[in-house]
Amino acid sequence: MKIVVCAKLAPDASDIEIRSDGSISLERAEWRIGSFDLQAIEAAVRLRDTHSGSVTALSVGPQRINHSKLRKDLLSRGPDELVLVTEDALNGADTAVTAQVLAAAVRKIGSVDLVLTGEGSADLYFQQVGLQLGELLAVPVFNAVSKIEVNGSTVRIERSLEEEIEVLELPLPAVLAVTTDIHQPRLPNMKEILLAAKKPVFEWSLADLELENAPESRVEAVSLRAPRPVERKRILIEGSPEEAAQALTGYLVKEGLA
Amino acid sequence: MADHTDIWVFSEKPALQAELIACAQQLTAHTGGQVTAVVLGARSQAEQALEQGAQRVLWLGELPTGRLVEDIVPTLTAAVQDKRPFGVIIGATVRGRAVAGRLAARLSVTVLADVLEFQWDGVALLARHMVFGGGAVRIDRPLASPVIATVGQGVFEARTRQTPSSDEIESLPWVEPPWQAAVIERRSRGVSSVNLSAAKRVICPGRGVARQEDLGMIEELAQALSAEMACTRPLAEGLDWLPRERYIGISGAMIKPDLYLGVGVSGQAQHTIGMSESRVVVAINKDRGAPLMTQSDYAVEGDLYQVVPALIRALKARKGK
Question: Which of A238, B102, B174, B182, CA to CA, is 20 to 30 A from B213?
Answer without folding.
Answer: A238
